[in-house]
Amino acid sequence: MLEPAAGVPPVVTAAAALDAAVAALDGGTGPVAVDTERASGYRYWQRAYLVQLRREGAGTMLIDPIGLDDLSSLADVLNPLEWVLHAASQDLPCLAELGLAPTAIFDTELAARLAGLERVGLAALVEDLLGYHLQKGHGAADWSRRPLPAEWLTYAALDVELLLPLRAAIAAELDAQGKSSWAAAEFETVRSAGTPIPRTDPWRRTSGMHRVHKPRELAAVRELWHARDQLARQRDIAPGRVLPDAAIIDAALADPPDEAALLSRPVFSGRSQRRHVKTWLAAIHAARALPAGELPSLRAQGEGPPPLNRWPERDPAATVRLTAARATLTKIAEYHRLPLQNLLAPDLVRQLCWEPPDPLDAAAVERELVAGGARRWQCELAAHPLAVALTPAAG
Questions:
Q1: DSSP state, residue 304
Q2: Domains plus CATH for the chain?
Q3: What does the pLDDT look like over 25-65, one tens digit per residue?
Q4: pTM as predicted
């Protein structure tokens, strides 16, 4: 089993130890590898329960942000540096909550996609490019545990120990393919993305919604989802651990009239659910009492094109345009060894095909792409070919 070259450092939990770590980090050179461990699936809030750092000349640092009140000294040194992360969009939000925000990043997962590599997981990249076998298995653990087990800390230290040489290997591949400027633009897009916009009607993403066919049942799902969310927030527990999605769907379809009927349903007979049975039943009753005019619609209302399966009946010409656009983009992506979704965002392509600009030419297509968030390199590759592909199909 691979072990950290210098062993696993002690976890920084006190101000004096943080000062020493900051001084070491400040004395290092080059970019800094950054990773976090959260407790997704266990906790409601997606906060960082461990921050891992490594810089040349400074070594590896494991910092427990839960035990530290002030990380401003760390931010002063860390924020101006280039950060090397893997799947940066997963780590940046919880780091921003700690006052840690980079001025530049290098995302090894995104870089690997742009380089056309087939396997882009961290363990796979380390094995393919560096020749090391990285043991995985603790990323989905409950990192809010204290104390953290020794084997978890080994895992955490290795995650950043290999990021810097991995960055060098992928950067060389990008440079050889002439894609370094593309990658820089993509990294900046991720870095500057900010806090994700909350989803509209997030309760509609409850697993098993395909079984719900009536507005009244849908209302019950909504009320149960919100009741669960409130409890999860208050207790800082992942919603699925408060009440599984399957139980929400089951109760909404069964529409139990009283506590006894609800407690007879799967899951609800457990000790935890018996404790909150009045909450769940109140949600079901609230849905049952809604006037017909206040029931949610079966199909989510939102901007943008309709679901793809409705395109042929709603606008056959748009279906033809989408087929032509996909064929064109697939050829471009294959030629440049890019995943199709990294060439252009699928939602942006669908929007363009559903409502093409008028007049339809390369300049107009480029304006639509830019308005939809496409980067310059993407427009250079795709705008003119898309205009050509869509023009014959526009009529």
A1: S
A2: 11-191 (3.30.420.10), 202-294 (1.10.150.80), 308-390 (1.10.150.80)
A3: 999 999 999 999 999 999 999 999 999 999 999 999 999 99
A4: 0.92
